[in-house]
């Protein structure tokens, strides 16, 4: 592999989640040798109950795991989408299990696994093969980024101030700074301050969504927990569950959602997603929580499956909220870019949630982040790791997809959380109407956006264009039908008057 001199310079990655560790591995495979990753959590497999998400790594994400040689190992620790079984359990205890249909059997299977299992997969690859060039620092947090005078040139350089778990401050002066530090990115906020006052390149642009601001909590249940008081039936690890509550009013209506995992000895995460004014947010003691859950889920032995410690933790937890769909236009920044011939310039790039963030409606949070890294890899390969040439093209090539995925999440599947049953009903009519028409009038009418997103060979931009084109066609067809009906009614009225 040909290398530019950039490969020998220091790289600092802020954020040791999937995007950060994947970027470190990608750069190491591209022959970068001095890579440091900062992660504020205590370990790669650190368990945070309210962040115990499950990922579905689809074909987009697998483009990067293929490059890293990790897809086979990913498959071994995951539940494939081709074996996705869902059991619905009603308040009266009745159960119905179904196998979700496969949209296209020729597509690569996607893989379900817990977030921490995926992060650990990436970290273990670093420990096995890349310790010589990647150093991951846990319990460290980036608290400030400054422009400092370089001791060797008249130009400025980047000075990153990092705080450790012992409150020591460490300074880094990277040549290449990568922001993978999420929605509240310190790196992006710094770039917003550094950018010209009239520019809004690094300001997040927000858009409304029906699922934005919904709140969630995660209830941790034991492995293979009993599904009834008799203990005759137990939860299977590779089965997804939707457990319906008996309340129907909005302030108390609640369900438990569990996604499949491979490891039968791992605790299960039950997601509770509600409106912000739901009663569950008023329960602040373990006993009030027990009472509510026992009333809501009479089909479950609540006190057997929710330990006192977990009940107390859950009651005191603030949970989280789905973010508003948002993105920023700027994906990179070049310090001292007025002198492109000087190799002491520093570069900054943003990836993942630091540049685009949205609710989990379409399962593209982690996949879009991994695709960011994959596309950056392709462009670095094109320019032989020369950041001065690669980063402007990365922004130019990736920005349209960044904007498109944020728009797609607003309408692709936002009503799945039962926050408004009537609106979900109308959304379902629209979904199945498009699906039927797409089979009759393809390619004039496209599939629903939610299904097109599952095709990793299509860009987000292309999917959005097709979805919008279909909307225009259906709107035009609707206007024609309404106009035709009005003409018929008008003529019938005239005929009736003449006859009379």
From TrEMBL:
Gene3D superfamilies: FAD/NAD(P)-binding domain
Entry's Gene Ontology BP terms: kynurenine metabolic process
SUPFAM superfamilies the record matches: FAD/NAD(P)-binding domain (SSF51905)
InterPro entries the record matches: FAD-bd, FAD/NAD-bd_sf
A Pfam family per the record: FAD_binding_3
GO molecular function: FAD binding; kynurenine 3-monooxygenase activity
Transmembrane segments: 431-453, 473-494
Keyword Cytoplasm: no
Keyword annotations: FAD, Flavoprotein, Membrane, Monooxygenase, NADP, Oxidoreductase, Transmembrane, Transmembrane helix
Domain FAD-binding: 10-193, 348-407
Keyword Oxidoreductase included in the entry's annotation: yes
Cofactor(s) recorded in Swiss-Prot or TrEMBL: FAD
Record's protein name: FAD-binding domain-containing protein
